[in-house]
Amino acid sequence: MRNGFTGSGSRKDSKSRADGLKRDTGGNGVNSCQKRSAVSLNHVWSYDFIHDQTDDGGRLKWLPIVDEFSREVLSLEVGRSVTAQDVVKDLDRLVKQRGVPEFIRSDNGPEFAARAVKDWIVAQGFQICFIEPGSPWQNAYIESFNSRFRDEFLNLEVFGSLLEAKMLAKSTVTNTITRDRIPHWGT
Known about the structure:
Elements: H1 11-18, E1 44-47, E2 50-53, E3 59-67, E4 72-79, H2 84-98, E5 103-106, H3 110-113, H4 115-124, E6 127-130, H5 140-152, H6 162-180
Parallel strand pairs: 1-5, 5-6
Antiparallel strand pairs: 1-3, 2-3, 3-4
Helix pairs in contact: 2-4
């Protein structure tokens, strides 16, 4: 004990606690991607939000959805706000195009935990894997995508409007599909 402080003295641990995050225990949650990993295409999808803004300070809320097995970007939607009904609309479009996944992994954000989203997912016949609060490493695939998306797209573009953001996103995904057959990131 030094100066009335007990513990390991790890600055990483104290910073995580200050940010509201749990200590990384290696993804031990029952719904983490380490415990419930994708074994085939369409087995596990994951989604999360990433925020940015237009040149005039207007809010942009991005909703990427990825297939964890192939790391394919299934959808990349953007709006000023995204409601639970918007999430259901996007998922419904994907299910009609690709079929029903076995699981979808997300945090407990209000748009994902909303009754409308949960009821729709259950009615479609797949299961929700909520990660533990404050444990983003349990949703590592979408967190990795969001990091790369920020570094390789959002930080390089200045959006004049919501329409411009939508068009650039569509162009980026389309160009990736043409070049690589499927939009993906990393190895």
